[in-house]
Amino acid sequence: MRRRVAGVGAGVEMHMARRATIDDARLLEKLGCVFRECGYEGASLAVLAKAAGLQKASLYHRFPGGKEQMAREVLAAAEALIARDILMPLKSKAPPAERVDILVRQLNGFYSAGRQACLLNMLSAAPTQEGPFAKEIKRAFAAIIAALAVALRDAGFDARSARVRSERAVMLLQGSLVLCRGMGTTRPFRDFLKRLPQELLAGRA
Amino acid sequence: MRRRVAGVGAGVEMHMARRATIDDARLLEKLGCVFRECGYEGASLAVLAKAAGLQKASLYHRFPGGKEQMAREVLAAAEALIARDILMPLKSKAPPAERVDILVRQLNGFYSAGRQACLLNMLSAAPTQEGPFAKEIKRAFAAIIAALAVALRDAGFDARSARVRSERAVMLLQGSLVLCRGMGTTRPFRDFLKRLPQELLAGRA
DNA sequence: TTGAATATACCGAACGAACGGTAAAAACAA
DNA sequence: TTGTTTTTACCGTTCGTTCGGTATATTCAA
Fold it and tell me: Closest nucleotide to residue B64 (Cα to C1')?
């Protein structure tokens, strides 16, 4: 009777024998790929099940909350991954240039060099009416922008321009991924990554 | 038995009495709003019909090709609108700064000050596997980037940096709209528009 | 160390609802 | 009339979801 908690926690599963049939993290990753490719509506249970290598009913054993819980847990896992691999390095004590280099490398892996879309984009609804994941998405964007702004402040920018630069970098990231999907190339994303360091750090005090 | 042509043409409907029951352009606009809000999969015939103020079967009378034709014609209409209201002014003889001002104004209207998402983003599929509208979307992006680059060349930039700046502006536009949807605000888009002129023209030769 | 009892992981088959789509007739215009 | 537009009613399919059940572990009493 674990797995009942859909929340972000994911930690409190102690003193429970792991039963390795299909690893949870791997499962979430496979589902995540589908959501990133097709979006929420486009990700049917059929393709989700096929991607997971399970039957639909089996997915419901792991996610009693159904499709929405799947997306929610995928989103939470992505949030955790971002926090660990992107936000933490950004807030480290290393010199800003080095932090940005790490950021570039991590982003490249996270988005498979531009081949994979951003979950936050694919799961977000219209700005007028908020969807089921509005809160999480908003929080994730805010966290990324804030962490990037911290690194930029450490690089010598004042709070205001650090914030502006940070937000612009996230916009460029998202925009490059949109362009990749639209143009059928990964070039925009790769170009973005190449220019990101000077985009962030050029012209600092 | 008009409307058979699903293509981009939309022009060859001469010598046919227009029969104003519900205006075609207005209809396409309403459908377009749905596609921009929900994406292709999310836009069910039920909500499309409701938005159009028609029954499903009535929609099929106008779009024998079904949902795909609806999206295709909406996309073609958007392409035409972009060509007229955005590309043409960008290629005009007016001074670059003025062209950019017009661009800002048109973009603001086109995206309802950030309240409406971009059709090109909402209709594009994964970069790995191309969807039904891949060609049109790619063409639209390329046209916008090219037209913007023309204006930037006229502003004194060399071909290479004009191209880079143009592409970056489109990325910022798309990214700002993604951020608007994700954060539930129109502020990123409005900020983008405010900064767009100097983003485009600052530092020119 | 057994053997029953209990959990866990998975699956085949089916559910009602909603999907995209169609046929035929009513309503309306010319 | 004739032809177009809209509607009501329906089709087959797929949707997300649930049920009943099987196989494999794990637990625990004897």
Answer: C21
Q: Which of B130, B168, B173 sits opposite A184 (nearest CB)?
A: B130
Is the CB atom of residue B55 positioned under 7 angstroms from any atom of strand D? yes
CA A103, CA A71: separation in Å to the nearest integer? Answer: 25
Following DSSP, what letter does each residue of B79-136 receive, concatenated?
Answer: HHHHIIIIIHHHTSSS-HHHHHHHHHHHHHHHTGGGTS--HHHHH---SSS--TTHHH
Q: How far is CA A8 from CA A36, A55, A71, A82, A132, in A?
A: 19, 25, 12, 13, 15
Q: Which domains does chain A have, with CATH numbers?
A: 24-201 (1.10.357.10)
The whole-angstrom distance between B74's CA and the closest CA on chain A is 17
Question: pLDDT 10s per residue in chain A (205 long)?
Answer: 333 333 323 332 332 333 345 688 999 999 999 999 999 999 999 999 999 999 999 999 999 999 999 999 999 999 999 999 999 999 999 999 999 999 999 999 999 999 999 999 999 977 677 889 999 999 999 999 999 999 999 999 999 999 999 999 999 999 999 999 999 999 999 999 999 999 999 987 6
Tell me, yes or no, if B58 comes closer than 8 A to chain A by beta carbon: no
Radius of gyration of chain B (CA): 18
Asked if A51 and A30 count as a contact pair (C-beta separation under 8 A), the reply is: yes
For residue A64, what are its two tokens?
């009693």
- The phi, psi pair for A123, rounded to 5°, reads -100, -5
Per DSSP, B65 falls in state: T
Q: What residues contact residue A182 under an 8 Å CB cut-off, 6+ apart?
A: B120, B121, B124, B137, B138, B140, B141
